[in-house]
Amino acid sequence: MSVTTSTSTVAGAPVDPSAPWIVSPDDHLVEPKDLWTSRLSSRWGDAAPRVVRVRGQAGLKQGLWSYEETPDGEPTDCWIYDDKKIHLTLTAAAAGFELDDMESRTTTYDEIRPGCFSVPDRLADMDLAGIDASICFPGNFVRFCGQRFYEAKDKALAHDCVTAYNDFMVEEWAGGSDGRLVPLGIVPLWDPVAAGAEVRRNAARGVRSVCFSEMPPHLDMPSVHTTYWDPFFAACEETETVVMMHIGSSSRMPSTSKDAPVAVSTAAMAVNSAMSMLDWLFSGVFDRFTRLKICYVESQVGWVPYFLERADRVWDHNRGWNEVRGSVLDPPSSYFRDHIFCSFFHDPHGLRCLDEIGEDNVMFETDYPHSDTNWPNSRAVGAAMVAELTPDQQEKVLHGNASRLFGLTRPLRYG
User: Residues 386, 391, 397, 398: what is their CA dihedral angle, to the nearest 10 degrees?
Assistant: First the structure.
């Protein structure tokens, strides 16, 4: 096994010192073990999410995890919550591992890099890779839009867990970073009015982004074609809070068959984002909320021009029967540049299409510490990705667009 847990033993790739540092709109944290036990009221007792260590054997087949506890098995840290055991997986904390060692197995907090859950260590890892600022999604316990608490039985406890997570995000994770760890909130997805109230509570203390599901119906929630989410969207528009949608935030990845290897869904991961974008473009939401902004992360960007072109064709050519006549007032593509943003970690084709997508709508991400991460070579990888762009475009993609979208005021960092 090859993993490094000290910045002194990891070296980033050489990079031109004139290249700007990165503002990444998609990174992750691994929730600290005491996040809820240290913040929730004692009345919740052992019902609060907590970490225990077990032994067993894990496996992954067709994208489905299995785990069998055995006395002589490998040690695994897992969260206990809502009568479930949620195991810490290596792919969610893979930074520092060699590619061939990023296996589908479980792990422990002792084995992964402290930068996954510790602010000082994360900042050191960011320095190593040339990452100036980072927007961090939850880890594999909370899941990408807080599905863990949406699915919980006790919604009073779940609501307290949501607010405790956001308090941690503001006070501890972002609060100790000098503006480099940018807070990203979650909301009680089971109540759009309460979700709007949580957006406003967080916005009052500087939070400018919130997690949401790319396709809510996959979680048995109403779609964006209804007005169900309007109280939540209204709060986001009012507070200039960006609605962030990570691939997999519908708890479902695209696949073709039950026996297809996980490589199929991994290669097709942008399909969910494409379908989600079409939902939003044909929903009329952007006519009701003219200042609302949404962002797809880990989605890549090369698919955008085709689906915008196809959406316009359907809107016009099929206007007699497309079921959106009168509700979507303008060509769908006309909503994109003011409302929709996307990020990528490796997409040469997408950058060749940048003029068609829009140079103000594309951002480079690092995905630390997930298995697709370009850490510790993020700055070198980013500089190579944008090498054929103009200097102004390079600055926008690597730093400026994310800074503008999330209202960051940090000066552009070089060297």
Answer: 80
Q: Which two tokens stand for residue 230?
A: 């309007």
Nearest to 315 by CA among 302, 304, 329, 335: 329
Mean predicted confidence (pLDDT) in 81-104: 89
H helices of 30-96, in order, are none
Q: Please, which residues bridge with residue 66 across strands? A: 59
What are the two backbone dihedrals, phi and then psi, of residue 58, each rounded to the nearest 5 degrees?
Answer: -110, 160
Q: Are strands 131-137 and 50-61 parallel, antiparallel or unpaired?
A: unpaired
Alpha-carbon gap, residue 207 to 105, rounded angstroms = 34
Give the three-state DSSP class for 251. coil
CA distance 246 to 144: 6
CB atoms closer than 10 angstroms to residue 41:
10
Quote the radius of gyration of the chain (alpha carbons, Å): 21
Specify the pLDDT at position 7: 35
The answer, as to whether pTM is greater than 0.90, is yes
Quickly name the fold that domain 7-32+113-405 has: TIM Barrel (3.20.20)
Structure tokens at 51: 């970490």
Mean pLDDT of 247-267: 81
Residues ≥6 apart with Cβ < 8 Å to 346 = 300, 372, 374, 381, 385
Query: What is the DSSP track for 11-48?
Result: -PPP--TTSPPEEEEEEE-PPPTTTTTTTS-GGGGGGS
How many angstroms separate the CA atoms of 145 and 229, rounded? 15
